[in-house]
Amino acid sequence: MAAGDWLADFSPQCNEPPLAHAATPDRRNGHPVLDFDDSTDEAAVFTGFMPWHYGGGGITVYAVASFTSDANPAHAARLDVAIERIGDGVQNLDSDGYAAPKPLVVAVPATSGYVEVGSVTFADGAEIDHLRAGELFRIRVECDAAQSDFVGDFELLRLVVRETP
Description:
The protein has about 160 residues and is an all-beta fold.
């Protein structure tokens, strides 16, 4: 396998909601989405398995999203994305151990209902909590309402993880 390879793909149904301020499951024309409010920080958490073919080149996280009603391309949503390694004997499941979050920005499309993709790149090592091939991990996505200026709901349709090309 090579850089740029697919590593993980999370749908809204894969969300393991945090105990407080969780994104809300919803549907848009039959498409499952997670709604993030425009005025409150809300989060979603996904657990994945880093495939054996991961070569240690860092990862890029892509958010595929739409917006409930906003159609102003000058607006955007800012997500804070953090990775937590759940390797053999490295993370106690009774606590969180996420690496520092990085910002991912998704622009509002000019037409409500259209999909936009935003991405953020993480270097191998501390930025991904030293995650290695063959290990479980969690990825936390939190919409930062104070750093976002969209109106209505941000709708997450998919979160995709690839090895950085």
